[in-house]
Design a protein that fits this description.
Elements lengths: L4 E5 L3 H14 L4 E6 L2 H11 L3 E5 L7 H8 L4 E6 L6 H6 L3 E4 L4 H14 L8 H10 L8 E6 L2 E6 L3 E7 L2 E6 L2 E5 L3 H5 L7 E5 L2 E4 L3 E6 L5 E5 L5 E3 L12
Parallel strand pairs: 1-2, 1-3, 3-4, 4-5
Antiparallel strand pairs: 6-7, 8-9, 8-12, 9-10, 11-12, 13-14, 14-15
Helix pairs in contact: 2-3
C-alpha cells in the first residue's frame, strides 16, 4: 500500500514548519509532498499532486482555506488550522472535517490524526454544506479601511482603495497612491497584518501591492516578473519567492 500523502498550507513560516515537524513525529508514514504559504499555491500543488490530506490555514493570502477546500476537498480529507475561537467549533464538529485551533497542542494534533487515519479507508466526504456552515460561523476579520500618513506638514487620511502599493522605508512605510506618496510611521510588517490578504499581496520582502492597482504582469529579458500599474509609471519587481502568486493570472 502506498504511503499516504499530505499538503500543508499555512502562511506563517514558523507555524508551518512546526506543524510539518510534528506530523513527521506523530505520523511517520505520512509523506508531506508540498507546502504552501498562500491559497493560490495550495490549489496549484493540490491539483498537480493530489494529496490524500490537506492541512489548510483558513486565513491565507490569495485564497482562504475554505476556498481551497471548496476547489480541492472532493479528493482529499481536510483538516482546517484556524485561530477562530469556540464560536466556530460547533460548525467544525458537525461537519466531516477536522480542525486545529491555534495555538494547537501536540495532543490535539494526535487526536486529529487518529480521526483522519480512521477515515482513510473511505472516500472524502461531500464538503459543500459544512463549508457554508463554517463560513457563516466564522466572524469576518476587520481590516484597515484607511491609513493616517504624513505628507509634508499635513497628515493625510488615505483609504486603502487609494493605495497602489506600500514600500518599506527603514522602520517606516511609504504608501504610494496615484497622486503621490506619503509616510506612515509603522513598519511594513505591522501594516501587512492589518490589510486584507485577498486584496493586498506581498510581492517582495519590502513591497506590498494592491491587486486592483495592477494593470499587467510581464517578464523582463532575464525572466524576472514585473508588474505594471494602472496609475503609476514605475514597474514593480516581484521576487522569485512570490512569483507563484501570478502563475494563475
Amino acid at each position: 500500500m502506498n504511503s499516504p500523502t499530505a499538503l500543508v498550507a499555512e502562511d506563517e513560516d514558523v507555524l508551518r514548519e512546526e506543524l510539518c515537524a510534528h506530523l513527521g513525529m506523530l505520523w511517520p508514514q505520512l509523506r508531506i509532498v508540498a507546502q504552501a504559504d498562500n491559497g493560490v499555491d495550495a490549489v496549484r500543488h493540490a491539483e498537480h499532486l493530489r494529496p490524500d490530506v490537506l492541512f489548510l490555514d483558513i486565513q491565507m493570502p490569495g485564497l482562504t482555506g475554505l476556498e481551497v477546500a471548496r476547489r480541492c476537498g472532493a479528493e482529499a480529507h481536510v483538516v482546517f488550522v484556524t485561530a477562530y475561537d469556540s464560536h466556530a467549533v460547533a460548525a467544525f464538529e458537525r461537519g466531516a472535517v477536522d480542525y486545529l485551533l491555534k495555538p494547537w497542542m501536540p495532543a490535539r494534533l494526535a487526536e486529529s490524526l487518529r480521526r483522519i487515519q480512521a477515515r482513510m479507508q473511505q472516500s472524502p466526504p461531500e464538503l459543500e454544506g459544512v463549508l457554508r456552515e463554517i463560513a457563516a460561523a466564522v466572524k469576518p476579520r476587520a481590516y484597515l479601511r484607511w491609513i493616517n500618513a504624513s505628507a509634508g506638514q499635513e497628515v493625510r487620511i488615505i483609504t486603502v482603495d487609494e493605495l497602489c502599493y506600500l514600500q518599506a522605508d527603514s522602520k517606516y512605510t511609504l504608501v504610494i497612491t496615484a497622486g503621490g506618496e506619503a509616510l506612515v510611521r509603522s513598519p511594513l510588517k505591522e501594516l501587512s497584518a492589518q490589510l486584507d490578504p485577498a486584496h493586498f499581496w506581498q510581492i517582495h520582502r519590502s513591497t506590498i501591492v494592491n491587486v486592483s492597482a495592477i494593470a499587467a504582469v510581464s517578464r523582463d529579458l532575464r525572466g524576472r516578473v514585473r508588474l505594471r500599474l494602472k496609475a503609476r509609471p514605475e514597474l514593480l519587481p516581484v521576487s522569485e519567492a512570490h512569483e507563484h502568486l501570478f502563475r494563475s493570472l
